[in-house]
């Protein structure tokens, strides 16, 4: 599809149409408030699927044989490639952020599925800090997960913020939306500059194919590309060929499920799809005693640049950025926590500096 179909009111020529391409879902309720009150369309595409065979080997088998391919993946790849090339040509670094969890269906006509607790908080907040650092951001996020800027108002009841005045005029109670003027101003600056490209996924299959498409799209800008893989991706799945078509009936008794391991897509991403990029993965553990060992094991296995290691209970205030030759503890002090400083700000500052060093080393 030609890029002119995505022409925008911004100077980047990028817009999401109300087609099957992909989603511009600016989070749950507050986004609707911002868009409806202050202007701008909300577009959501409905994914259609193709089942394709072929050889497309990842670390453990063929993606296209094991996982249904989204019909719109090539269109999204073209859009991401145009976005990356435009910003790369302008001297800007581009980060692909993955955010939120992946849904694993238990039935072909899905009623039940496996999920995880991820809200997308880390990915959404990190996107804001990368934008502040001068990056252009491709935000590959789970449907209805938290979104940059609107995440700050997740717990707000939309209707409580609005008042209907005479002549159909709707006003916003800014007291119920702290700092909304500042946040909205920043969001509109990012939008008008075309610095944020959202791409949405829901299922594990969508995520894997869209991540591969993103890696191939960003390969053209070499070391200026960063991959910040913060999504909570399922380790297990049920192949489509082994999945019941209809809803599993509880009358059949207790449920026993046999699941396969999800291919480790990080290896082909680093080795084949975007070999010159700066790649960061995340490692979450519940046992602090194995955290650094597992992080270093990941670096040895996949040969990427950094692992952000964190423990479930302390992940909002303490992480360790692990590289092949260093480890840096990032900690929020009590004073910083009172000022509502976020650990993601420190993570992004650390990794942005490391990325610049990486680019300089590559020449």
UniProtKB/TrEMBL annotation:
Domain of life: Eukaryota
GO biological process, one term: coenzyme A biosynthetic process
EC number: 6.3.2.51
Enzyme class: ligase
Catalytic reaction list: (R)-4'-phosphopantothenate + L-cysteine + CTP = N-[(R)-4-phosphopantothenoyl]-L-cysteine + CMP + diphosphate + H(+); (R)-4'-phosphopantothenate + L-cysteine + ATP = N-[(R)-4-phosphopantothenoyl]-L-cysteine + AMP + diphosphate + H(+)
InterPro entries (alphabetical): CoaB-like_sf (IPR035929), DNA/pantothenate-metab_flavo_C (IPR007085)
GO molecular function, one term: phosphopantothenate--cysteine ligase activity
Family annotation (Pfam families): DFP
Residue ranges annotated for the DNA/pantothenate metabolism flavoprotein C-terminal domain, each copy included: 94-143, 217-346
Gene3D superfamilies: CoaB-like
Function: Catalyzes the second step in the biosynthesis of coenzyme A from vitamin B5, where cysteine is conjugated to 4'-phosphopantothenate to form 4-phosphopantothenoylcysteine. Has a preference for ATP over CTP as a cosubstrate.
Membership in a protein family: Belongs to the PPC synthetase family.
Protein name: Phosphopantothenate--cysteine ligase
Originating species: Hemibagrus wyckioides
